[in-house]
Write a structure and sequence with these properties.
about 375 residues, 3-stranded antiparallel β-sheet, Aspartate Aminotransferase, domain 1, 12 strands, binds pyridoxal-5'-phosphate, Aspartate Aminotransferase, domain 2, alpha/beta, iron-sulfur, 7-stranded mixed β-sheet
Length: about 375
């Protein structure tokens, strides 16, 4: 039997060895970082060291880094914690972590390539003070928003800009100085699940989501998940945007071969993450494709993985105007350790699946 081919890095990157070692070392520390005795102080030293390393990796100061239990929490903390007295504007293709934290937000349209409509942002900013929430990179298509331009518009209008950098971090350079707040997630960097961070512009205060023992300078109550955070710091340092060329070459080979057989690449014309492609096979539901590939040992997603395991029509592709085809896309996202033959193996499995499904009368 063929070994498994894991191509679902945007759901979770495989654990990096550096992260595993850091988690194991921290697991053996008994102290609570808030305890005053020697064991607590030792845990505190490790915690503050990891805070410094994460902040340094993404160009912020440790005092402005709030450690959380993941990217969803970091986004919710920013969106809810900064929204007081502001209108909230969200991109149409944002992750549910942002959309669910901002019910009633005004939605900013995207172009058909998935990039933000800057004209629409400029028009929406003409009004009372706003909090604008934009993702650096989309989790389904990998499309990168024009963040420098959006940030300049926000600055001019006196708006705050929150950037969900969960998918971009470690894969492309992230301009944290453009944002008032930046959300990060450990397991998307190759760290363990259950760690995240919110990097704030110096001096920016926000109201906490979780209150309690006053940890994180009162911005996030609760004992810090030290092993997961230590793993995240190690993963953040190991993740190198420079490694992108290798993954981009594999991604390009997949796209060329599948497009030649009738697939449509969503967002093909836009700047994108090097590891991600969204392949639409018109007429074939995404769920059918995911299951067929899974049986062949190839792990991919249908758009975003949803907690119920159900596959629906992608709101991201719908916002890009894909219509019925928005239910027929699979997301292939190459992990940091993708094997050299990943493109060949994926294309072989995808082509066999396509031929088989095309022979079925209902799907022909
Ligand atoms: N933001 C984006 C763009 C994501 O892709 C995800 C996860 O898929 C999240 C936020 C949530 O991150 P976490 O899984 O760490 O809660």
């Amino acid at each position: 039997m063929q070994p498994e081919l894991y191509l679902d890095a945007n759901a979770t990157e495989p654990l990096r060895p550096e992260a595993r070692a850091a988690v194991l070392a921290a697991l053996d520390m008994p102290g609570n970082p808030s305890s005053v005795h020697a064991a607590g102080r030792a845990a505190r030293r490790v915690l503050e060291g990891t805070r410094e390393r994460i902040a340094a990796t993404f160009g912020g100061s440790p005092a402005d880094l709030v450690l959380t239990a993941g990217g969803t929490e970091a986004n919710a903390l920013a969106v809810r914690g900064l929204a007081a007295g502001r209108r909230v504007l969200v991109g149409a293709t944002e992750h549910p972590a942002v959309l669910a934290a901002a019910p009633g937000a005004e939605v900013l349209p995207v172009h058909s390539d998935g990039t933000l409509d800057l004209g629409a942002l400029e028009r929406a900013l003409a009004g009372p003070p706003a909090l604008v929430c934009l993702m650096a990179a989309n989790n389904e298509t990998g499309v990168l928003h024009p963040l420098a331009e959006a940030a300049a518009l926000c600055r001019k209008a006196g708006a705050l800009l929150h950037v969900d950098a969960v998918q971009a971090a470690g894969r492309v350079p992230v301009a944290s100085d453009q944002a008032d707040s930046l959300a990060l997630s450990g397991h998307k960097l190759g760290g363990p699940k259950g760690a995240g961070a919110l990097l704030l512009r110096p001096g920016l205060s926000l109201s906490p989501l979780v209150t309690g023992g006053g940890q994180e300078r009162g911005r996030r109550g609760g004992t810090e998940p030290l092993p997961a955070i230590a793993g995240m710091a190690a993963a953040a340092e190991a993740a190198r945007p420079e490694a992108a060329a290798r993954l981009a070459a594999l991604r390009d080979a997949i796209e060329a071969a599948c497009a030649a057989q009738g697939a449509i690449v969503a967002g093909a014309g836009a700047p994108r993450l090097p590891n991600t492609t969204s392949l639409v096979l018109p007429g074939v539901p995404a769920e059918t494709q995911v299951i067929a590939l899974d049986l062949a040992g190839v792990r991919v997603s249908a758009g975003a993985a949803c907690s119920s395991g159900k596959v629906g029509r992608s709101h991201v592709l719908a916002a890009m105007g894909l219509g019925e085809d928005a239910a027929c896309a699979i997301r292939v996202s190459l992990p940091w350790n993708a094997p050299e033959d990943a493109a060949d193996r994926f294309v072989a499995a995808w082509s066999a699946m396509r031929e088989r499904l095309a022979r079925r009368p209902a799907l022909a």
